[in-house]
């Protein structure tokens, strides 16, 4: 497979839905275009906050196709399959739509496969879809250990690693492995730390809502201006603490996007609810950090 050469900030896009749960295709294209205009280095469809887990291949393929037509930067496609067959169908849809890289989370519905069976699945995907493949270690309830990921590397089953799920220990272990493939941090509150430790990039939900600010952290780090990077990181961290609610993450994140002038519709049922108090909390947080104006 070709080497994965994407470096920098990858915006894990939100998926705009209307009140009936249907995708707003024009809004999706505009959301992707705004992220590109703000300077992100790539975009991702199907990430952890995209609400696309369980999508049919037709729906997922159209999402990728819509984003691909809206941007010139690389497109990553992230899937959460429950079987090898489902993974192959989704991978074909992503490849036909023009995705550059496929991110695959391990099946986690009820039971998790062992590392050897997972490697078999990933290698079959590589044969079927012919896309560079990254393991997406992002499901908090089914995290792969660093040892399991090393086994996937030894089997030649992966070309890169997306490490999320809030586990900084695994991220740190992966980043110090000799001869490792590219590692992308997907822990929003630790994006800057991942960059300091040598991650090749950041795959971020925050970057879909605050793309210029996330790119600013990355560029300040690259320039060695760590004081500026830390200040911007702290602003984003305080906002993430408000958005990262146990039941309202999707609704709050989409509210923040709307307040920022990059509307992403509403969250798909049953995740659409947010209390009136949440709206006040999110707006006040963005005001405090200078992310919106008081008008």
Question: How would you sum up this structure, described in words?
Answer:
- The protein has helices at 25-37, 57-70, 84-97, 115-129, 146-154, 168-175, 191-196, 206-209, 211-222, 226-243, 249-259, 276-288, and strands spanning 8-12, 42-45, 75-79, 101-104, 133-137, 160-163, 183-185, 201-204.
- It has 295 residues and is α/β, with parallel strands linked by helices.
- An 8-stranded parallel beta barrel has the order 1-2-3-4-5-6-7-8, surrounded by 6 helices.
- Strand 2 (42-45), helix 2 (57-70) and strand 3 (75-79) form a beta-alpha-beta unit.
- Helix 1 packs across helix 2, helix 9 packs antiparallel against helix 10 (226-243) and helix 10 packs antiparallel against helix 12 (276-288).
- The longest helix is centred in the C-terminal third of the chain and has 18 residues, at 226-243.
- The radius of gyration is 18 Å and the shape is globular.
- The mean pLDDT is 95.
